[in-house]
Amino acid sequence: MAAPKKSRGPAGGQGRPGRSLALILIIMVALTGGMFLADQPTPRLGIDLAGGTSITLKAQSQPGKPDAINQTNMDTAVGIIERRVNGLGVSEAEVQTQGRDTIVVNIPKGTNSQQAREQVGTTAQLYFRPVLGMAAGGPTPKGTASPSPSGSPKPSASADGEKVSGSSATPSATTTTQGRAVTGALTKDTPSPGASDDPKASKTPPAPADQAGTALEKKFAALDCSTKTGRAAAGANAKPTEPTVACDSTGEAKYILGPAEVSGTDVDGAKGAINQQTGQWIVQMEFTKGGAKKFQKITGRLAQQQAPQNQFAIVLDGEVVSAPYVREALSANAEISGSFDQQSAEDLANVLSYGALPLTFKEQTVTTVTAALGGEQLKAGLIAGAIGLALVVIYLVTYYRGLAFIALLSLLASGILTYTLMSLLGPAIGFALNLPAVCGAIVAIGITADSFIVYFERIRDEIREGRTLRPAVERAWPRARRTILVSDFVSFLAAAVLFVVTVGKVQGFAFTLGLTTLLDVVVVFLFTKPVMTLLARTKFFSSGHPWSGLDPKRLGAKPPLRRSRRVNARTDHPKEA
Question: At 52, is the pLDDT very low, low, confident or very high (cuts 50, 70, 90)?
Answer without folding.
Answer: confident
